[in-house]
Amino acid sequence: MKHKRIKMKRMILIKMKHKKVIKKLGKNWRKIAMKNNKIIAIWGNPNSGKTTLSIKIASELVKKNKSVILVMADPYAPAIHTVLPFTETKDQSLGALLSSIQISQESILKKCIPVQNTKNLSILSYLHGENIRTYADYGKERVLDLFILLKHLADHIIVDCSSQFHHDLLSRGALELSDQVIRLISPDLKAISFYDASLPLLGERKYNVANHIKILSNVKPEMPKDIVGNRFGGIQNELDYSEELQRQVLEARLFETLTDKKSEGYNKQLQSLMDILFFGEDDHEKKEKKSEKKLKIAFLKKGSDA
């Protein structure tokens, strides 16, 4: 709770430094800061399952009738056509959005790619064949613009970050501004090498790495998970390797539910992670609705008495 308050204060202070953004939103920026929605950044070593987990979390939220925008931030290997290979994108590029003269809620929605047969879920992504030189450079203020506006458009924002965040301003901004960061760790020695090289680049206090939710991913029985887990310490969850999930990756079916009995372990672990991320959110909404109902009844009663 303390971390959440600090994060909220930090985000408000950053907003106040950027008067242009606040002027654009007017009084609405206070409402944005108070909303119960979240930005969740998912980051990890290469091949740790960042995109896979991003989609699974987004899909679980949609099942709870939440609206979600999934931001696929990696400009080096655009993921959209690996997960939705038959979807027409119509020049709906995240790169074009970030490099435009200015962005608005309307321009964001135009670039959102809807996921067919999935209600309340859309994607912002670089497109197939694009790279870091396809569009003009953008600054940190543009990243701030994007995240503020996104929080006003959906219940939750999931950011699938690039492993190479030091070369990607959007992923770096997500690691700084997100309400929570999931750090995926493959249980192998390459992951140790990656983090020994990368974590010092997140040494500034604003990244708050001590509060990352550390998850061992793609865990197989023969892997040295204990060695890797002890190396990083504070592992909060595991996500086991699933053959069905691997087939979904290869066949671009990640938006489908895992139904194989052998995937029950993964599904339970995913639900455990959802509890960590969104614990108490449904109760909070029920209380809000109950409070609104009481106010409405009181108002109607007052009107009838008059």
Automatic annotation (TrEMBL):
Pfam families: AAA_31
Keyword field: ATP-binding, Nucleotide-binding
Domain of life: Bacteria
Swiss-Prot/TrEMBL GO biological process terms: negative regulation of cell division
Annotated ranges, domain AAA: 39-187
InterPro entries noted in UniProt: AAA_dom (IPR025669), P-loop_NTPase (IPR027417), ParA/MinD_ATPase (IPR050625)
A GO term, aspect molecular function: ATP binding
GO annotation, cellular component aspect: cytoplasmic side of plasma membrane; cytosol
SUPFAM superfamilies xrefs: P-loop containing nucleoside triphosphate hydrolases
Keyword Membrane included in the entry's annotation: no
Name of the featured protein: ParA family protein
Record organism: Alkaliphilus serpentinus
Taxonomic classification: Bacteria, Bacillati, Bacillota, Clostridia, Peptostreptococcales
